[in-house]
Amino acid sequence: FRELILKMSSNHVIKNSEAIISIEARGFIFGSAISLQACKPMIVARKPAKLPGDLIQENYILEYGKSSLSIQKEALKKFNTFAIVDDLLATGGTIKCVDNLVKRSGKKVSGCITVVELLELRGRNEFDFNVESILKIWKKNLNFWENVFLGIMDNFKKLYQIKPIDPAVKPTIKKNANSVKSLGIELTIRLSWVILPCAPQVY
């Protein structure tokens, strides 16, 4: 995880921004660590009814319905350029939502960086700014990398005496194997434990 954060925080997308916007919820894991490492302030984009104060809100479409994200107006006032941080780039809906929030505030998104990108969904084509991802995966290879990450998790579990994953989760993962985004999210959770610099860029 440390090596992953070092790689993300040294990326030009982070360096060329004044502040970071992390997307709820897994984006907070990576965004907070990147913010600390890069010495950049972090702003949060949160789901409905989570933030106090005067908010700017934007709706977006999910695979299974609609949702929205909000950012505090006061937080955006202090900076002009932002880097969006999230765990996964699939169709690009949540990142596009944050981009719209920033643009409505008269500010600029300098780029976004994610841990995983599902290339087959071509989410990066939705944006007019730099898009960076650490691990790029094609759908046909998802099952292979699912098994790799499960193996890595098992090793970390033994090494650090981490509570094992509930066995009930595995059938759920298999059941959702046809959903690229669902499986991608499962992979991203496991990436919190993976050291990535030794991995090839595209899979």
Keywords:
globular, 203 residues, 5-stranded parallel β-sheet, alpha/beta, two-stranded antiparallel ribbon, disordered C terminus
Summarize the structure.
The chain has helices spanning 2-9, 12-15, 26-38, 73-77, 93-104, 142-160, 169-175, 180-191; strands at 19-23, 42-45, 55-62, 65-72, 81-89, 108-118, 130-137.
Largest sheet: 5 strands, parallel
Helix content: 25-40%
- The low-pLDDT segments are 169-183, 192-203
C-alpha geometry: globular
Span between termini: 20 Å
Helix/strand class: alpha/beta
Give the SSE order as H and E letters. Answer: HHEHEEEHEHEEHHH
From the alpha carbons, calculate the radius of gyration and give it in angstroms: 17 Å
Number of strands: 7
Count, helices: 8
Strand content: 25-35%
What is the strand arrangement across the widest sheet? 2-1-5-6-7
The overall pLDDT, averaged over residues, is: 79
Could you characterize the architecture of this molecule?
The protein is α/β, with parallel strands linked by helices. The protein has eight helices and seven strands; from the N terminus they run H-H-E-H-E-E-E-H-E-H-E-E-H-H-H. It has helices at 2-9, 12-15, 26-38, 73-77, 93-104, 142-160, 169-175, 180-191; strands at 19-23, 42-45, 55-62, 65-72, 81-89, 108-118, 130-137. The strands form two sheets. Strands 2-1-5-6-7 form a five-stranded parallel beta sheet. Helix 6 (142-160) runs parallel beside helix 8. It is globular, with a radius of gyration of 17 Å. It starts with a helix and ends in a 12-residue tail after the last helix.
